[in-house]
Task: structure prediction
Amino acid sequence: MAEEIRSLEDLKEGMKEAGAEASVDATSVASVDAGEAAPEAVLPEPKIDDLGRAYATGKRKDAVARVWIKPGSGKIVINGREQENYFARPVLRMMLQQPFECAERKDQYDVMATAKGGGLSGQAGAVRHGISKALVFFEPSLRPALKKGGFLTRDSRVVERKKYGRAKARKSFQFSKR
Result:
């Protein structure tokens, strides 16, 4: 089938010669006629508000964080306090930096977040999840890198509920044979 295909009938004839069934629709012929490759994936528009910020909600355990990011110097404020004061443990502060390091955008965005519920570890995870989602809203081209790092997936692990007839979720009462 080295000759040029000009219409649907030419395509059907060429397929019959090759021994294949002729089941071709007009849209596939139009793309062959135009000589185009498959269309490339189109990135969504950035979601930025009037103040030049991107907003996202992050969740982890029982904690929920509302996160706004905007271009800046890398300052992170949670519930009106600097990250050093709010998250005293270095591990929790490191969690907040992970999305920026993965996207190679360290010290390029200011973060303002409010965190509620859960403990400090859950809140740090929620803020990290919110930062990741907000980065994708601000720059949609960062999605593959953040997705590969696992920052866009909500960590769905939560505390297991207590069952009746048990001391805790799985712990049993002491067993006495006699």
Q: What stands out?
A: The first strand starts at residue 54 and ends at 60.
